[in-house]
Amino acid sequence: MKSIKIYLLILLTASFSYGMPEATINDVSQSSEKKPADDKIPLNPKVKYGKLQNGLTYYIMENPKPEDKVELRLVVNAGSILEDDDQVGLAHFMEHMNFNGTKNFKKNELVDYLQSVGVKFGAHLNAYTGFDQTVYILPIPSDDDEVLEKGFQILEDWAHNANLAGDEIDKERGVVLEEYRIGLGAGKRMLNNYLPKVMYGSKYAERLPIGTKENLENFEYSSLRKFYKDWYRPDLMAVIAVGDIDAGKIEEKIKAHFSKIKSPSKERERKEFLVPNHDETFIAIESDVEAPYANVSLMYKDPKPVEDVTTPEGYKKMITIQLFSSMLNSRLDELRNSPNPPFTYGGGYYGASWSRNKNAFQLYAGVAETEQLTGLRALLTEAQRIKQHGFQAGELERVKKSLLAGMEKAYNEKDKSQSGTFADEMIRHFLDKEPAPGIEWEFEQQKKMLPQITIADVNGLIGSFISDKNRVVILTGPEKEGLEKVSEQEVLDLLKETDAIKLEAYEDKVIASTLIEKIPTPGKISNIETSEKLDFTTLTLENGMKVTYKVTDFKNDEVLLSGYSYGGTSNYTDEEYEKTNLANRIISSSGVGEFSNVDLRKSLAGKVVNVSPYIDGTSEGLSGNATPKDLETMFQLIHLYFTSPRKDEDAYSSYVQRLKSQYANLSSNPEYYFYINHGKFMSSNHKRTFHLPTEEEWNNTDYDLILKKYKEAFANPGDFNLFFVGNIEEEKFKTLVKTYLASIKGIERKDKVVDLGIRPPEGTYELIYKKGLDPKSMVKINFGGETKYDTKKKYYLSCLGEILTIKLIEIMREEKGGVYGVGAQGGMSIYPYEQFSFSISFPCGPETAIELKESALTELNKIIELGPEEKDLQKIKESQRKELKEKLKLNGHWLNKLEGASFINQEPSTEKELEERINSLTATDIQNVGKKYLTGDFIVGMLFPESYELEKPANPDETVIESETSKDK
Q: What is the Cα–Cα distance from 563 to 613, expressed in whole angstroms?
């Protein structure tokens, strides 16, 4: 069951991932092996559910996708909200320590072992901590009994065998403090000011999971050990196993590993922390000199407790709320697309307000820096319009169709869904009591319930959603000279004004449902070629277009599209580029044919289909997806984007206004400032490098020229290669190809990629950028240059990046405690010129930036001089084998594979060839590619805070200092 509740906070809470799971609606779970009461929503019968005598809950589900893999989870119903005053930040710190040594895996042995069986640290092995929960994520192979057994030993160790030795705790402080450092900035400063108003009177306002710097640096070892003892106990834990497994065998493993865990003799009460109600309206108006964007949000906290959704009637109420939110967001999206949009984006929903025990009706918008009151007025006005006039029957029918279409797609994929999706559902069932009855039950219930939900049911919600009590208004944005800050009185006046306003009802225009009135006269397929090796077919049409398709059974209800033609903006003159590049993507926001963007979405209600055209630096093309049922609609959209691109001045005006507000303050953010300015240097300050546009450049943008260049780019269908992968019925597919693609007329026009001469400067450079208030630095090391493209060497460079990442994590994170995350990657490309590239990047503290930069280069040079260690080579080979096995069952992989090979005019590799490439990889291959490409010039960019004092460079001739005052040079 997909939750309708979401967290607003998506940062500062996770250890190895930055996000938090969605919060969910409460339910009472029950065993699938027992017949549920008639008035209760049952648990998915495919789930083996139970509880051990010590109180530990377990969920087991057999699911064959992907093959030979199981998704394991250890879920702890304990997060930062349970921390005592001396434990602030320690729920999250405890998560870190579980990766740092346990009874059966000393120090870094756990990560080392998992890497040896193909599980990557961070990408696969993961965890997150929230206010109310901690979740450990362990995907492992299921076709090896020894590996499977060790996987459960790891889960058990996390549950009660952590090594919390003082020296290991002290070593980990540095890593956690680096994660804390990453979260610093304008957003955190403003959050700290408004969170007490959002979570008024609640402990949530004091327990951001990342904690405080002071406590992370100084907490006593006993405080962490006490948190672990108090809260990591069986009655607060669940073990989840979903994958290509034998459920009975897994159940025995769970019993063997977890039955022996005992709870503390005196259990602390696991309290639920409530958010008190308040009569007054709280207003938070926060600004910061580093804030790149302005935002407004409006929260009406529900005074009632979170409603139970354990019954079909509760489920029906939840669907009604989903319909309400969908209609509201459709109206707000129309406003976003209006000629003078009051916001760059806007939305609303009813759901969790940070705490899983408090729901709220919430509205939000991103706005121009001077338009916070305008955006807030728009949100309030639309809420009032709904309150006064409600929604209309036509709106409801559209969202019903869309909701049911999405549910039908999920139902059709029920036997092809990935195990991770089911594991996430069970996490929510355990933590938040969200029902998990299975897609069969949900699909049948929605087909039954949706016709019963009336417009009166939906309109009846707004009265309980909006009140002048329990209300919070939050405005955040830039702070700079000449920008007047909104006052609290202005917000209060606006609230009073919009509470009393009388409004016209929303006008719901009737939209045609047929995209193409007259079906084109079909063209012909002039040639058919089939690849026996990879089982795909290429059709050459009479207009010259090539259409390649591959039939798969990986998904029941999915067909993916991608396609290209060479050229892109590289074919534009400098003058054309200057007049078009800022709004080049307007075509996909203008609708198509006779349909505006808003009308197009309305006409496609109930269909699962999408097509988007693009023009980038080296190509133009299309991407999209559809269900087999909606495949003809996808072909109609492709046809229209070739033959009837739409000019819409209102859409253009709206698009430009939104982009302007998004770009206005980007350079005030230190990270954006660094990447923008370092990018200029890396391109030798080429005029086509991204930069923040001036008002003159915006005024110089020419919509007519944008449309003209688009028509030119799509004028010759014979210049395009389109690719389709998925559940394709071949004869129907060929009929659609002839009708909608072969019928496209065109001109004889062949474009190619033009090399514009954009190159980095020759030589080795170290650039220092000064920007920002917080003690944060960023380091980026780039190697690159022209070379003949070589598929093998491209692969070897990529492998060198993987191995170097392993070493940098070991040295810079685990040994030095100097970084939270670090990565290296390498490769080659053909367009716009044949080149290699290799980069190392990481955030860190300014006091260690230079030292860590040297450490990174030292580790790279060790690999170049001595070759990689054999154990590291075997780690990446095993990981690549596992990833290849999974990717070969994904439509997206095959789509990228076929198109990618075509783009560089090469034959795609077979599975056997890819396996042989992995198996034959040697340490010498990696060492040699390092020697060949990474022993010459390189460029280092380092970001430092403005106030940080640097020592004089050892060699000023090779060092460029760029300070805040020289940023516009």
A: 9
